[in-house]
Amino acid sequence: MSDSDINSAIFAAIAGDWEKAVQINTQLLKSSPNDTDCLNRLGKALLELGEKEKAISVFRKVLKISKYDTIAQKNIDRANASKPSTKKKDQQSKTLVTNFLEEPGKTRLVTLVNVNSASTLLKLSFGDAIKLSPKRHTVVVSDQNDTYIGAIPDDLGHRLSVLIVGGNLYDGLIKSISKNSVIVFLREVSRAKKFRTTPSFPVGSSDYLSFVREDIRDQDKPVVTPTEGDDDDTEDDHPVSHVHQDEEPEEG
Question: How many C-beta atoms surround the C-beta of residue 236 within 10 A?
Fold first, then answer.
């Protein structure tokens, strides 16, 4: 089971391509029949396709392997309850994933810190859209109902807080969850004029991993050029507009 195959299974699910998710995870299980992550992904895909009994059977297999697997139990409970339509959510997730894949250099994969309780996290699903709220030294992440999920780590969080307050726009979604961990995708939607040469996610940082294909990673390195004489510059945003990609944007 390769990382590439696992990523393909995850992205099929996030994009709402449940038939493909079933196909990939079924294939993966041939070599690792007791892989609970793979089984949970398969069960989730079957559930989204309306294959309730098959999904429950898969989740019960997970519980035989790992008695206290909360993801499997949560999905069994969900299968036994009424299930709202996911069409709108799937379309939103598919659009977001497409954007993440097609905009290298403007996306980042981030593990949140100071996450909420396990009972709250396990109510989330991969592909769920998230909200970003800037604070003085970080950015708080919440779900669409404004329930706190976690925070962006301080170094990147402070940078994004300054950029958001200054006018940058971002969106994001949940990539993976467990009872004590959440990984999210972040994407720069638009950049404020005064930050036009300041990338949200500096290229070359080793602390965070941008989700970009290797064959196009080097094609998107930002080029910072002098802007002296630019009529759009003002005295207030001049220091920010000349920030190097690896420097911290100035507040103000």
Answer: 9
